[in-house]
């Protein structure tokens, strides 16, 4: 039974660099929380403060109702899975998994029973006598999991545990970790920079940027109702397309096209009215853009676009487009590259689409699904 | 030339080339090491080797003479004590200093000062070390006056010239002279241990000493074993330090195999027996070296 509560946590490195500012998070007992954000945003720092590997500059932290700010890592009743796995190279798999029990003075027989049990769950039984150097990446990853599980901790802390695996194994381990967590029901905080992991694994996702928590929500809510342009751009792949426009009498006006917003959109977002007659940022997810020559696109308004390139993935076509409008940087460092190229928008078309590179098309936009943000603060307009 | 000619030449050339490159060093090693070694081995089986032109085969007579000599066995024992104590203490002191220099609880400023201080013994040759310690351990030297002032010893001790203390004193001087090799090697080893192993151990509940035993020492083990073996081989053959401090005395109290052999050769002019003694040292060294090479290969 352990909830983890962070209150106003701050972290300053070397008395000047503020890595974490005022972090508030409540993770319920048994919850799987994903902490996601671009690299360098302070995810590891936050996790390491919870683990006790890094001092907390100010704020309160409790695990299972106990204030743990001044406790050593071993007294916090947590287990951690490191990005590098940090397996003890000179110990066998058995010794690695049983190390904490050995330190706790548990008898050999008791250790063996428990380690065998865990090895069975993780399919490591045959490997118990091997050294880490002789294991594959996936096997090492499972040993690291086993070492965390053996202690039956109040909370698991995982720092990008899958980032050293190849793509295929990552997909498999993603599912394994998620199902293991459900099975064990242990509160888990999982750090990743991969928004696919974030969207598929956890109960809730906390998005961070530059040491500041942006939004904590279920994956679906995060996707459907991002609180700001950063979250909107960061969650979802390919990223949401963000453009600047003038709003006047319910019409978005850019240099190259205009879009009339439906009544429902205006009715659902009373705050939009304040922006009438001024600038606004609007966003469209790639799947809300359609090929106007196909049935799915016919009912929507269209804008002229130039096709820069087409990636045919089989199940869909990812189409890179150029629109005559000013793109907006969401602040996600991974997305900047797209802005630098020739295209400034991405759409996902059905495979039936026949658009080809270097052609001009009419792009259908589902205006009911657009997102709106303040041009200054980038906060969502609701 | 046949069509195979150039190809065969090329192949032959490639096979010979490595030996050509090696040949200068092989010739030097052969002339300066293997030849003298073979000669010493030959002397050890001759009567009146070197001293007279007409020598005859002596069989194992010189070896029997040496193995029947009490002083030889005393030297062997002293060598063993001197070497084992030196290597163990080199390792212990080297490890302690390396840990200290690697600790981030000591300010970086102090650490760099200590690093220079600790490495000082390495700057001196054995001759200078012998002179330093003869002065320091002189009955009227610094060490005695400090120990007397502190009340640790009642009266001044002639460290190098009393039978009870001489062997310990030379061993002590050699420990002082030799720990930096361990310190530097272990420090490099310590810096190569991934930090996250200690963090994982922190979370697993290890205390400071437990981390030393379960993480640091096992991680340093390959370095500890290879440097220990090398140190053992070198220390076994130390000569100038002992020769210039005690000369093997008083009354054989610090006689080691190297001084024993030297005296046989150049005080008693018994070159054949000296050769037999030298061959004995050689055999022990070869044994240790083979062990070292096997250990290096196993890694
Ligand atoms: N020990 C440290 N000293 C100073 N700055 C640090 C230290 N560790 C991390 N940082 C800085 O803090 C920021 C957040 O780091 P980190 O938490 O590792 O990011 P993330 O895990 O999200 O990639 C980075 O800008 C990083 O450079
Ligand atoms: Mg990180």
TrEMBL record, chain A:
InterPro entries: AAA+_ATPase (IPR003593), ABC_transporter-like_ATP-bd (IPR003439), ABC_transporter-like_CS (IPR017871), ABC_transpr_MalK-like (IPR015855), ABC_transpr_MalK/UgpC-like (IPR047641), Mo/tungstate-bd_C_term_dom (IPR008995), NA-bd_OB-fold (IPR012340), OB_MalK-like (IPR040582). The keyword Nucleotide-binding applies. The lineage of its organism: Bacteria, Pseudomonadati, Pseudomonadota, Alphaproteobacteria, Hyphomicrobiales. Residues 4-235 form the ABC transporter domain. The gene is ugpC. PANTHER family: MALTODEXTRIN IMPORT ATP-BINDING PROTEIN MSMX (PTHR43875), OSMOPROTECTIVE COMPOUNDS UPTAKE ATP-BINDING PROTEIN GGTA (PTHR43875:SF1). GO terms for biological process: carbohydrate transport. GO terms for cellular component: ATP-binding cassette (ABC) transporter complex, substrate-binding subunit-containing. Belongs to the ABC transporter superfamily. It is found in: Cell inner membrane. Keywords: ATP-binding, Nucleotide-binding, Transport. It is a peripheral membrane protein. GO terms for molecular function: ABC-type transporter activity; ATP binding; ATP hydrolysis activity. Pfam families: ABC_tran, OB_MalK. This is Sn-glycerol-3-phosphate ABC transporter ATP-binding protein UgpC.
From TrEMBL, chain B:
One of its GO terms (biological process) is transmembrane transport. One of its GO terms (cellular component) is plasma membrane. The chain crosses the membrane at residues 20-45, 80-101, 113-136, 142-160, 172-193, 213-234, 241-262, 274-293. It is a multi-pass membrane protein. Gene3D superfamilies: MetI-like (1.10.3720.10). Keywords: Cell membrane, Membrane, Transmembrane, Transmembrane helix, Transport. Residues 76-292 form the ABC transmembrane type-1 domain. It is found in: Cell membrane. Its main location: membrane. Belongs to the binding-protein-dependent transport system permease family. This is Sugar ABC transporter permease.
């Amino acid at each position: 039974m352990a909830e983890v509560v962070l209150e106003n946590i701050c972290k300053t490195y070397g008395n000047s660099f503020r890595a974490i500012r005022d972090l508030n998070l409540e993770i319920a007992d048994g919850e799987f929380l994903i902490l996601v954000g671009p690299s360098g945003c302070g995810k590891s720092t936050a996790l390491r403060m919870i683990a006790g590997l890094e001092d907390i500059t100010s704020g309160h932290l409790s695990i299972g109702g106990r204030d743990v700010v001044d406790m050593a890592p071993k007294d916090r009743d947590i287990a951690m899975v490191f990005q590098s796995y940090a397996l003890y190279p000179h110990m066998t798999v058995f010794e690695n998994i049983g190390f904490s029990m050995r330190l706790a003075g548990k008898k050999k027989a008791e250790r063996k029973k428990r380690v065998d049990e865990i090895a069975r769950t993780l399919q490591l039984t045959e490997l118990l006598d091997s050294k880490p150097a002789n294991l594959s990446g996936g096997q090492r990853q499972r040993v690291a999991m086993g070492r965390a599980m053996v202690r039956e901790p109040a909370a698991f802390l995982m720092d990008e545990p899958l980032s050293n695996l190849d793509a295929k194994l990552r997909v498999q381990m993603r599912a394994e970790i998620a199902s293991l967590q459900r099975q064990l029901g242990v509160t888990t905080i999982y750090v990743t920079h991969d928004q696919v992991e974030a969207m598929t694994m956890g109960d809730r996702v906390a998005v961070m940027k530059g040491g500041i928590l942006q939004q904590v929500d279920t994956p679906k809510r995060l996707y459907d109702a991002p609180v700001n342009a950063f979250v909107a751009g960061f969650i979802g792949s390919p990223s949401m397309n963000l453009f600047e426009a003038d709003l006047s009498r319910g019409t978005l006006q850019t240099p190259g096209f205009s879009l009339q917003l439906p009544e429902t959109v205006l009715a659902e977002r009373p705050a939009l009215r304040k922006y009438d007659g001024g600038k606004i940022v609007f966003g469209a997810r790639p799947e809300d853009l359609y090929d106007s020559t196909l049935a799915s696109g016919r009912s929507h308004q269209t804008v002229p676009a130039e096709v820069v390139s087409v990636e045919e993935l089989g199940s869909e076509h990812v189409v890179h487009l150029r629109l005559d409008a000013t793109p907006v940087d969401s602040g996600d460092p991974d997305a900047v590259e797209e802005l630098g190229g020739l295209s400034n928008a991405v759409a996902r078309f059905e495979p039936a689409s026949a658009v080809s590179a270097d052609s001009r098309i009419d792009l259908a936009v589902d205006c009911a699904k657009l997102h709106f943000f303040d041009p200054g603060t980038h906060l969502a307009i609701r | 030339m046949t069509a195979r000619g150039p190809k065969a030449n090329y192949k032959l050339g490639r096979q010979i080339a490595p030996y050509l490159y090696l040949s200068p060093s092989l010739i030097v090693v052969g002339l300066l090491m293997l030849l003298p070694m073979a000669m010493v081995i030959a002397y050890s089986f001759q009567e009146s080797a070197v001293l007279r032109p007409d020598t005859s085969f002596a069989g194992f007579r010189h070896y029997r003479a040496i193995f029947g000599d009490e002083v030889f066995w005393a030297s062997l024992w002293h060598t063993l004590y001197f070497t084992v104590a030196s290597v163990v203490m080199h390792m212990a002191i080297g490890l302690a200093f390396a840990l200290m220099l690697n600790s981030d609880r000591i300010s970086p400023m102090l650490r760099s000062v200590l690093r220079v201080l600790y490495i000082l013994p390495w700057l001196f040759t054995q001759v200078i070390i012998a002179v330093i310690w003869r002065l320091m351990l002189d009955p009227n030297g610094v060490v005695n006056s400090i120990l007397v002032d502190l009340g640790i010893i009642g009266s001044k001790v002639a460290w190098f010239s009393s039978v009870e203390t001489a062997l310990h004193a030379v061993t002590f001087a050699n420990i002082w002279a030799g720990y930096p090799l361990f310190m530097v090697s272990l420090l490099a080893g310590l810096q190569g241990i991934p930090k996250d192993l200690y963090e994982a151990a922190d979370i697993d509940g290890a205390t400071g000493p437990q981390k030393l035993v379960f993480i640091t020492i096992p991680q340093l083990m390959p370095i500890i074993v290879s440097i220990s073996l090398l140190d053992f081989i070198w220390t076994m053959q130390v000569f100038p330090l002992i020769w210039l401090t005690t000369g093997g005395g008083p009354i054989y109290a610090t006689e080691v195999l190297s001084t024993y052999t030297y005296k046989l050769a150049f005080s008693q002019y018994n070159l054949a027996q000296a050769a037999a003694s030298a061959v004995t040292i050689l055999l022990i060294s070869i044994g240790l070296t083979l062990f070292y090479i096997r250990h290096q290969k196993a890694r």
